[in-house]
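Bench notes, bay 3.
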Amino acid sequence: MRRNLLILVMLIPLLSIDLSAKAEKPDSTRWIYWTPFATTIGAGDGYVFRPRTARKYNITFPAFQSISASLLFTSNRNTLIDTLFGKPYFGIGVYKPFFHKSELLGDPASIYIIYGLNIYQLSDELTLSAEAKLGTSFGWNPYDSNTNHENRIIGAKNNYHAGLDIFLKYRINNYLQIRAGATYSHFSDGAYRLPNAGLNTLGGFADLMVTFKDRLQLDKHSKAARKVKPHVEYDLGISCSSRQILGDVENSNSTVILNHSFKAVDLSTYAMYVRSRYLRMGVGVHLIYDESSNVTATRTINEETATIVNSYEPSSSRERFAAGVFGKVELPMGYVNGVIDYGYILTPQLSSNSFSRLNLGLKSYVYRGINASFGIQITPKNKANCVFLGIGYTFNYYSLFR
């Protein structure tokens, strides 16, 4: 439970820091704050993707069902963000899936933060919309080498829950709307504890939305307000991660789980070209410190207990540092931006240990150029994925809080 609270504390600044964002215009002192305007309750059904690790033990999954509820929040005033991005909103939701595999997976449930927006207005009554969800799930029965060795899908009792809903919203009257569409969910612990194959689901859902407070009508900004003068912004950021790894056993072809949380710190700087409200792109460099670099695993037998003991030999301090050249694409979506970084990391042993890396994340501007980020780091060569948390500052940033 303590880790659940920690995860929520880390996520709230990312997705809801703008609940008290101050206007950027010098002549304005109005703050943006958020109040409840609607609630939803619904149900879903769908397919559980079968991880490769489950096939080894011939584990199959029936169709799953779910129920969910949420409370949605709207802002007290309109900004340029509302005009450009379909009047985004935030929310808090709860989710209960039924996987029908309690002995293997446990009986999980989730609580998450919601970020939603309207994509396209098809008619006065029908709207295409989307919601992103990020939070924590609990109640899992994780992997245990003695009591639950077949569960190589979930390695921790508490895990991240990330989801995306794409749906149609039909307005019945001023107070009632029906929503129906597709939903995707991912559950994992971000390599905090291995094994961590993760669980993915895809299905459909329907819910009823009850509105008890009218939202403000959008301001009619001119087309000029949608344009931006081409310019360069400079991003400076630092991110941190912690994970277990699979270590290569010395003098063998086998790997073992190393029961240690290896820390990593990534300092980055980018030059970002901006000529649209909907796109930022640029190039930059990363300086990385990673405790898990070039770790050597050892496997010994404890003669007293007749058990196998896995340990590791840490690398030298010099081998833990690396530098990388990256490209970044950032897709602004209102109060939250989607971020994709891809690059090549050069290690001190250039010929053998250099590798590519992909970072997928979300970023939210806290105040002016200050921002917070959350995402997943993917390193194909090492078959290692982990979650990262970051903070940063953008110089010459053009705010939309106005």
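Next record in the batch:
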Amino acid sequence: MSIPFQGPEPDPVGGPIQGAFQTPAPSPPQGALSGPLSGPGQDRQGQDRQALDRQALDRQALEQGLERGLVTSPLSGPTRSPTGGLPPISNFPDQALPFEGRDDQIAELVELFGRYGHVLLHDQKEWRHGFGKSQMAIAYCRRYTIRYDVAWWFSCEGETDEEGLRRLIDDQYRQLRELCERTSGSPHEVRPDQRWLFVYDGVPNPDRIVEYFVPGSSHRLVTCRSAGETWGKNRLALGGLTERQAKALLLKQAETLTVQEAGQLASLMNGNPGQLLLVADMARERGFESCLRALTPVPGGDDDTPPGGIAVPFPAPRRERGMRLGPEDRRTLIETLLNSEVGRTRETYDVWIDSIRIAISPETLPSVNDGGFVRTRIVSVVNSAVRHASPKLLVAIAEATSDQADEEAGAVVRRLVDNAVRTWDDH
């Protein structure tokens, strides 16, 4: 690579992880106490001295880490939740919601990283529609965020030229280095170890991407439709959700479906999460019978048909005319609101909607025949906002959510709204 780097070379494909970089324990600074103060009558002066000694130890550990180019200490950042957030240094995309039914595969990914330096996540079959590899990579990082100080996303989708791919990765890695220097306040070279996670997403050829890996002993997760030819046991195939998981997803997304109807629809599909969500949308808007008619057996279907021979005639979703958010962003916005304080109870929803009404006054919100379902109410408000002539309603949603929901939910909603506002007049 064109970026100068220090540290061990990447491990061979399927090879065991090499030793990670670790910060050695610092020696006590001159004059520091080597043990606790003794005696029940320990005075305030002794307590102050002990506190100062602890600060000196912390400061020396930080200085030693910087001198060696190690970033674990300076990148430790603010306190974060053991699950659900992202590491202190990260450029990961937001999790597209809902995300369901991949617990077993994520657990297997953890096991693979326990044995190998890098892992390939690929489709079980090279079907036209992917099965959520990128979203699983994001979910893995969020679930095990406490294990990483850095998580960096290399977007490789669509780059088939090898030299172009090399430049793309170099540029994205340079951005990471600059961010590390700003965060640590040190120009020293950074050296990835096992507390760094690199995701190379949507690579065209999994067998060649190894040549472009950033050196070091970081965890590397590669997503690709193909299983490649040179990868061994350090690869994981991702297929459809089980019928039980598919049924549960439909029930969560389409409150009008009965348990029996959701089970029947799930049995006619191949477990593709994206397609299941589209069917749930159809069930909510047009009813169960419309979905059943759409999932009609097609004789002699190609390899992209589910095992039962039922074609899924839903193309990749497109942004509807007049919609200022694409289908995935719109669904993520709705799910984020539902999973936040906003969607917790009728009372919290009422506080949120009252804030929106005040913000858009003298305009009024359309009436909602919600049938008692909080999802119906939130979907209606979001749909009105993304079809509105101005972004005023959508901005009001973001501000009301920031005031009421937790910091992470507020940040996700704000990013989605800001992206929509920037391109408002283009749709």
